[in-house]
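WARN no homologs supplied; continuing
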Amino acid sequence: MDATNPISYFQDISTFLKALKTFVPQSNLFHIHRHEDAPETHSEETQLFRTNTFSVSLLTDGEAVYKIGMREYSMKPGSFYFMSPQQLRYYKKIRPWKGYVFVFSEEFIRMFSGISVYAEYPFFKLDANVQLRLNNEQLAELLPLLEKLQAYYNSSESDKLKYLFHCMSLVLLKARKWYAEQHTIVPETDKPVMLSKAFDDLLEKHFFDIASQRAESLLAVADFAAVLHVSSNYLSDTVKRETGKTPTQIIKERTILEAKSLLRNTRLTVSEVAYFLLFDDPSYFAKYFKAATGVSPSDFKDQK
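OK structure emitted
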């Protein structure tokens, strides 16, 4: 990791695994390995980072502290957890790990499916509780699938990627079922719900573009409406009806969430956070933050 950079950003699976001093993947589409097979060079602790990949990990033994977004998790045997490109991450090993981890790109999904990963699998959403606690019966269902997934990865099958995708989908579908049992999920039933979800997906993509410094400005409701081919009023009315909040409120809450994460977890100054989030004026950002939270960004940064 770059010690001079407050947040490391990895463009693909190869650069991500190289930074962790672990395996060389077969491609930037998909990779899987057992935790206990990781080389001794594997990083025991990371700095804050983002990566343009999805990660799914199971601990059957060992312990770790993870920070994912604004939440901190204690990962222990039976922890099954999920990370997406939008999320700021950090981990520290407490005891040696056993289990599995697999990493995949959005391109890998698009090769075989038109689904939205975020809409299909709620545990990949930015502010989701990303951890499941699996019992022995659930572990007995999951482990053979992960073993099969690794076997396909190490095979010379001509349609290896297709096998990997379908086996991975079974794992994620199992996870979705268990997630629904442990966490409340609102079902998608009609077009207004789908429009609201599409807005949410676009918003998350926009903030990932900001995090990876590919966005030029903060988008407003009208910008999202244009992409979704609806009027601003229709988008606002629909989202308000489905979520109880206007798109403007949701954009502001999402901006504040990112600002809190940067202020609390990085060495960036308040002004640097403002510019990172594409505010033209740090003083306006300070007023914006205080109006939303009741505290100034500098006071929030100093809070322990």
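The mean pLDDT is 89.
OK
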